[in-house]
Amino acid sequence: SGARFFAAVDLGATSGRVMLGRAGPGELSLTEVHRFPNRPVRTGATLHWDILALYRGVLDGLREAGRRAVPAGRLDGIGIDSWAVDYGLLDADGALLGNPVHYRDGRTEGMADRAAAALPPEQLYAETGVQHLPFNTVYQLLAACGGAQFAAARRLLLIPDLIAYWLTGRAGTELTNASTTQLIDPRTRDWSRPVARALGIDLALFPPLRRPGDPAGELLPEVLAETGLTGPVPVTAVGSHDTASAVAGVPAAAGAGAGGPDTLAYIATGTWSLAGLELDHPVLGEESRRANFTNELGVDGTVRYLRNIMGLWLLEECRRAWAAAGRPAELEPLLAAAAGAEPLRSVVDAGSAEFLAPGRMPERIAAACRRTGQPEPRDAAETVRCVLDSLALAHRRTLAEAVRLAARPRPRTVHIVGGGVRNELLCQLTADACGLPVTAGPAEAAAFGNVLVQARAAGAVSGGLAGLRGLLRTAQPLRHHEPVRDHGHRWRQAEERLHG
Ligand code: LRH
Question: Would the pTM count as exceeding 0.90?
Answer without folding.
Answer: yes
